[in-house]
């Protein structure tokens, strides 16, 4: 595995984790116009 692929995988995991936290916050505090 090359370093570029490894960094892409780690970046994707971090991004999905971040989006999950934001999604949970939006569900707890729903705002009109946001999914």
Secondary-structure topology with pairs:
Blueprint: H1 3-28
Keywords: Membrane, Transmembrane, Transmembrane helix
Transmembrane segments: 6-27
Number of helices: 1
- Spell out the helices and strands N to C: H
- List the uncertain runs: none
Strand content: under 5%
Characterize the largest beta sheet: strand count, sense, and whether it forms a barrel. none
Quickly give the structural class: mainly alpha
Q: Which percent bin holds the helix content?
A: over 70%
Strand element count: 0
Task: Put the structure in a nutshell.
The protein is mainly α and 35 residues long. 74% of the residues lie in helices and 0% in strands. Keywords: Membrane, Transmembrane, Transmembrane helix.
What do these coordinates show?
With 35 residues, the protein is mainly alpha-helical. It is built from one helix and no strands. It has one helix spanning 3-28. It is rod-shaped.
Task: Please tag this protein with its features.
rod-shaped; mainly alpha; membrane; 35 residues
């Amino acid at each position: 595995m090359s370093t570029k692929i490894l960094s892409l995988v780690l970046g994707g995991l971090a991004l999905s984790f971040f989006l999950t936290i934001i999604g949970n916050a939006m569900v707890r505090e729903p705002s009109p116009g946001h999914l």
